[in-house]
Amino acid sequence: MQNQEEIKRLENIVQHLLDEAKEQGASAAEAGLSQENGLSVSARLGEVETIEHHCDQGLGITVYFGQRKGSASTTDLSADSIKETVRAACSIARYTSEDDYSGLPEKHLLATEFPDLDLNYPWSISVDEAIALAIECEDAARSFHADISNSEGATVNTHQGIHVMGNSLGFLHGSLSTRHSLSCSVLAQRGDSMQRDYWYSVARNAQNLEPATVIGIKAAERALRRLEGRSLTTRQCPVLYSAEIASGLLGSLIGAISGGSLYRKASFLLDALDTQIFPEFVHIHEQPYLKGALGSSAYDSEGVATKTRDIVSEGILRSYVLATYSAKKLGLQSTGNAGGVRNLMIDPGQDDFDGMLKQLGTGLLVTELMGQGVNMLTGDYSRGAAGFWVENGQIQYPVEEITIAGNLKDMFKNIVAIGNDIDYRGSTRTGSILVEQMSIAGQ
Amino acid sequence: MKILNLAKQSILTPAGLQESDIEKIMSRLLSSSVDAADIYFQSSHSESWVMEGGIIKEGSYSIEQGAGVRAVSGEKTGFAYSDRIELPVLLEAANNVRAIVRQGQEAQVKLTYAPNTTQYYPIANPLKSLAEQQKIDLLRQIDTETRQLDPRIEEVIISLSGGHDVVLVANQDGQLAADVRPLVRMNVTVIVEENGRREQGSMGGGGRSDYGYFLDHDRALAFGKEAVRQALVNLEAEEAPAGNMTVVLGSGWPGILLHEAIGHGLEGDFNRKGTSAFSGRVGERVASDLCTVVDDGTLAGRRGSLSIDDEGTPTEKTVLIENGILKGYMQDKLNARLMGVKSTGNGRRESYAHLPMPRMTNTYMLAGKHNPEEIIKSVKKGLYAKNFAGGQVDITSGKFVFSASEAYLIENGKITRAVKGATLIGNGPDVLTKVSMVGDDLELDSGVGTCGKEGQSVPVGVGQPTIKIDGITVGGTSV
After folding, report:
1. Residue predicted with more confidence, B240 or A190
2. DSSP β-bridge partners for residue B68
């Protein structure tokens, strides 16, 4: 009940902001406010290392004077500050240009139904309990094997936030959500070889976190298996993206079909709508109404209702990812994606991770990518990588200090299989992805 | 004194806080078992403008303020912050933080002022250095002149941003220090098209200065010209080769190699914990004797410069590697104390809402003796990497990677063709041992670097002369 009162209070502040904008002459406005509280506790080498109490708040407003707009934001929610912030936004709108495409979303697209998406599960964990949990997690990692030589520690995080969004078309809604995580990072050493790796679990409800000991053991296993890695000679071979990094491939897809890249013609998937960009078996869809998921929301950051929809089916690109501005620029309608895609899923195939290794046969399993070598304009892709060399479906030895390269257009078309070893931790959910052939550069 | 007074007026006066209130909060934080504590107040004003499609498309203004309180005992840190600079809120924060120590009585603290330090940048608010209309006119002028440079230009995107950051930090001894930090930045991105092929080029710069910086020496126009040049080079670029080869790195921004491959591994926290590939190696050879690398926060007006760090320690020029020998690490107070050395003025934080840690300022390699042309001439077959996009490092394994945004093949001592999509990957502790020539053309980057560590971003500078590395893995698509 207290929560509902707090939401009401913050909704009133947003309404006050919108009223103030109107007062100062704006023809339209939209505003957002967020308030977050949290605790972050980390332990290292069996003792508490840091205790951080988080307390963030901020509001932002965009005002429109006809087709001109201005934005301002502040961390100070006082009445004086609100007036000042609106004034700053209005002042900026005097200098920006008339832009035919700027403005609020069409009213009929705004969300009107707000189902409970199961996103708010406060975790009443005390500081002492959090310390104990972090130590338990790290202990599991450190005691796992004699070669676990050092640690960067384990961290417990818990956050609760209220987010309110409103605009001068009458949209005003606030919601509560929580996010909790437990992570562990340790070092393994054998001879001259030193490697670090980590594992984490994240959830809206702390009960859905993986057990602390499981997270610790996974972190230890991951660090150990990287020891004594070798480079590879330069070659071409099939590449299996492990589930935890395969989401990056889907991230590149979304970047390329996002309105901003399209109207700037800065995408390798320009004019690709209704064309075959993946093999026929690929089905990629957005699921904003999944209960308890990290990306779930009934509306986007402009208040537009989100939709459960196909982005790719039968390998054909069915829809772009648009917010109001980019949609107008392209002569289309917003797809409810201001602020991104909410729960992106790719249908899994029949094989688990071992089955995917068998399909890979002889080639590279990639478990880590480094650097930013992705050119969204051309699709050119060249990134630092680490992972394992695989022969006849069996992992042979760890590999490091190599790059993998290709062009995303070809890589998408050459996807051979998608595993059912889905990583549920992010707002993109995918299994491991096998790409038929890429260029490996090494020693 | 001027800066301290300005900081007090910007932060304490509007909040109705007195110096005696800071004493109260600090007293609440301290007890006999606290080794260090600080209160960090910050008030930041920033703005940004974007021109795209020939119009002034976006403008925004932001005010952020708050305070963070920290207490450290041994290796343990307690931390809390708030956007509300109010005595009851900060006293409660101090109570929470102090729980890390769990014992001891409150101590009494009397505030004193930190001695004046050298200022490496002006204190005036850069946001006010040009009238709004002048900022708009500047953007329009660059847009118009850049578009006229070549008929193949399809789009020009220009951003202009500025910030004015006022900080006030009180430590456990009651010493109060302040800094006022201007920062401006401009960037021009150009998209070109020829025969259906689209490529882009980007150039920008800035520093701890005001907007006049972009007018001096026609710098803003030069950004536009350089962005167009790079975009046109990319139109001609062919697929990069793959494999291990000799690589010549250009001067200036390619110094990001030092930042990634070496710099992060020399930050005090990783070395205190023994998690860096450079841990325990002070006094050892980590580079060829041609290499001397420093981190220098004292360069006037540079993007990575600071008069004092975020713990109130004056910055310095710290020698990291001298003639190939590892000399020392970059330290904040906590790690310096635990390693029994002095802080090098590298304690930085993204804001009041983040904990300080050892971070770089401006990191660069000193000039050598070779003429850059001589260096190119000495390579039979290799890659000349003139400019880079971003990079990343794993400080434990030492592996680093970065992507060239402008690169050429070197064949028989001559630069021949432009190549695209080249990624360099290597091992931090090895790479400088393979430096066989160092140019006499030391250059610092134009002021575009932002470094991320543990989720915190801070502005940094990098630099180097032209250098030759015998053997580094290049990842390209052409096998």
Report:
1. A190
2. B40, B81
CA A288 to chain centre: 13
Q: What is the DSSP letter of A147?
A: T
Instruction: Give this complex's ipTM.
Output: 0.91
- A401 domain-assigned: yes
- Looking at the structure, do residues A85 and A220 belong to the same domain, yes or no? yes
Residues A211 and A239 in one domain: no
The alpha carbon of A436 is separated from its chain's Cα centroid by a whole number of angstroms, namely 26
B424, B426, B431, B434: CA torsion to nearest 10: -70
Per-residue pLDDT reduced to its tens digit, B170-228: 999 899 999 999 999 999 999 999 998 999 999 999 999 999 999 999 999 999 999 99
Q: Which domain holds residue A174?
A: 2-225
H helix or E strand, kind and range, residue A381: strand A380-391
Of the candidates A142, A175, A138, the residue with the CA atom closest to the CA atom of residue A154: A138
DSSP B366: P
Claim to verify: residue A145 and residue A243 sit in the same structural domain: no
Helix (H, G, I), strand (E, B) or coil at B422: coil
Whether residue B109 is predicted with pLDDT greater than 90 in this model: the reply is no
Mutation target to probe the A interface, by most A beta carbons within 10 A, among B453, B473, B474, B478 is: B473
* Any domain includes A60: yes
Q: Which of A44, A187, A371 sits opposite B401 (nearest CB)?
A: A371
| Same domain as A84, residue A174 | yes
Distance, in Å, from the CA atom of B139 to the CA atom of B151, rounded to the nearest integer, reads: 20
In a domain, A163, yes or no: yes
The model carries a pTM of 0.94
In this structure, are A187 and A39 located in the same domain?
A: yes
pLDDT value at B265 more than 60: yes
pLDDT category of residue A6 using cuts at 50, 70 and 90: very high
Contact, B456 vs B349, CB < 8 A?
Answer: yes
- Token pair belonging to A253: 């897809």
Clarify whether residues A41 and A158 are in a common domain.
Answer: yes
Residues A203, A84, single domain; the answer is: yes
**Number of folded domains that form chain A:** 2
Cα-flanking dihedrals φ and ψ of residue B434, to 5°? -95, 10
Q: How far is CA A249 from the centre of its chain?
A: 12
Mutation choice for B interface testing from A96, A100, A402 by most B CBs within 10 A? A96
Q: Is A303 helix (H, G, I), strand (E, B) or coil?
A: coil
Question: How far apart (Å, rounded) are the C-alpha atoms in residues A396 and A407?
Answer: 27
Characterize the bridge pairing of strands A47-65 and A68-74. Answer: antiparallel
Q: For residue B66, which of B89, B36, B100, B99 has the smallest C-alpha distance? A: B89
Are B97 and A53 within 8 A, CB to CB? yes
pLDDT-derived band at A129 (thresholds 50, 70, 90) equals very high
CB B415 within 8 A of CB B381: no
User: Which chain A residues contact residue B57 at CB under 8 A?
Assistant: 96-97, 99
Which run of H or of E encompasses B15?
helix B13-15
> What pLDDT score does B30 carry?
86
What tens digit of pLDDT does each residue of A305-334 get?
999 999 999 999 999 999 999 999 999 999
The verdict on A110 and A207 lying in the same domain is: yes
Do the chains contact at A442 and B473, CB–CB below 8 Å?
A: yes
